[in-house]
Write a structure and sequence with these properties.
CATH topology: Growth Hormone, Chain: A
CATH architecture: Up-down Bundle
Structural class: mainly alpha
Largest sheet: none
Order of helices and strands: HHHHHHHHHHHHHHHHH
Distance between the termini: 34 Å
Shape: globular
Strand content: under 5%
Number of domains: 1
CATH superfamily: MFS general substrate transporter like domains
CATH class: Mainly Alpha
Number of helices: 17
């Protein structure tokens, strides 16, 4: 029996994968607010580049895992990769609770990167497999919305728990629940989507790429434009993850206030994708990517001049809107430009470069912050983000 494509036809599996991706996002939210504070308070690490080292290893391990998830998705199976990802994620919250030096935090983030690469990439590819070509943007909007809403909510919760009960161990108990629940649901309830891929392959008119890695990375004008923007997007997200709490602390905000502001951006990012994902099925993806990256760049640059809670809240909201516009559009556009049999591989290459943006962003922002100050670091990242929008405008071909 041939598998049927569509959101309505596969809503049960699709909904299950959305919920599981919420647990995946929650694992990142554990660290979003309090890990830079743990570096300073528990381990006496003051240098910005040293503090951001946990993001560097997370970004590199996730990026490499993304690539191999795409490369092996057809061979090993999407579901199997998802289950393996959760098994690797199980020790992460325990290591964060009991770490006695910063090297343990680094090790936990290597495992977290592998966990995120396997689980998030698997759920992305499986949802695209299920819905077919008419609702890719909506599918990605729902997927990324669940993940990043969870990031924001858990970032707020960990900030609140830390302010009430201390930085460790209580905030990380949430992670134990996420990992166990995600593993059990993935193993017992998820079914693979290989039959949906076979069904779509019969009707696809997209030409196969001659070299998936090279063309997705840069040589194909559309795929290359999308990939560079993805890298820059996560470059600035790595900066927000690592430097934003430090910037806010330097301006005298409390741990609870930092937790609230750290939550605004990913929550807006998450909620916004419920709208922007469907828009990516209707509007020109080139325009959405251009305006989304431009809004991000303007918001980041303006943060340097903000002083009050309300100003930071408005700018975090703008940054969340800009990111919500581009994030589901990235993956839907990659899928539009690749053959079904090459889709997982191409998405893996895109996510390799996109998540290397975390590592590049953390290294770049850490070095600039150490030598020239936090303000100059933030200004530099904002400028790079605006340049990325110009690349999309000039290089990407318009497709209705």
């Amino acid at each position: 029996m041939e598998a049927r494509l569509g959101l309505k036809e596969n809503w049960k599996q699709f909904t299950l994968l959305v919920v599981i991706n919420g647990f995946v996002g929650g694992m990142i939210g554990l660290e979003r607010t309090i890990l830079p504070q743990i570096a300073e308070a528990d381990f006496g690490i003051a240098g910005k580049s040293a503090i951001l080292s946990f993001i560097v290893v997370f970004g590199i391990s996730k990026a490499i895992t993304n690539y191999y998830t795409g490369a092996f998705a057809n061979r090993i199976g999407r579901k199997n990769l998802l289950v393996i990802g959760w098994l690797i994620g199980l020790p992460v919250p325990l290591i964060l609770i009991y770490a006695t030096n910063w090297n343990w935090i680094i090790a936990a983030n290597i495992l977290l990167g592998i966990n995120q690469g396997l689980t998030w990439s698997s759920t992305v590819v499986m949802k695209i497999d299920l819905v077919g070509d008419r609702n890719r943007g909506l599918a990605m909007g729902l997927n990324e919305s669940a993940g990043y809403l969870a990031v924001g909510i858990v970032a707020f919760l960990t900030g609140w728990i830390a302010s009430e009960y201390g930085i460790r161990p209580y905030p990380f108990y949430l992670g134990i629940g996420f990992a166990v629940t995600g593993l059990l649901a993935s193993y017992f309830l998820v079914t693979d989507t290989v039959h949906h891929v076979n069904s779509e392959t019969k009707s696809s008119h997209v030409k196969k790429l001659k070299n998936v890695f090279r063309e997705t990375t840069w040589s194909n004008p559309n795929l290359g434009s999308i990939t560079q923007a993805g890298l820059v997007n996560n470059l600035n997200d790595g900066m927000i993850w690592g430097l934003f709490p430090i910037l806010l602390a330097s301006k005298g905000f409390s741990m609870a206030e930092i937790g609230k502001m750290a939550a605004i951006y990913p929550v807006i990012w998450g909620l916004g994708q419920l709208v922007t994902g469907k828009l990516a099925d209707i509007l020109a993806k080139k325009s959405m990517l251009f305006w989304g990256m431009l809004i991000q760049g303007i918001a980041i640059i303006t943060m340097v001049f903000a002083t009050t809670f309300s100003q930071f809240a408005i700018l975090s909201t703008l940054l969340g809107i800009g990111t919500a516009v581009v994030y589901p559009t990235f993956l839907a556009a990659i899928a539009d430009n690749t053959h079904p049999e090459q889709r997982a591989n191409s998405i893996g290459v895109f996510r390799l470069w996109r998540d290397l943006g975390y590592a590049i962003g953390a290294i770049l922002t850490g070095l600039i912050a150490d030598f020239f100050g936090v303000d100059n670091s933030i200004l530099s990242i904002g400028l790079i983000t605006m340049i990325s929008s110009v690349v999309i405008k000039l290089r990407m071909e318009y497709t209705p």
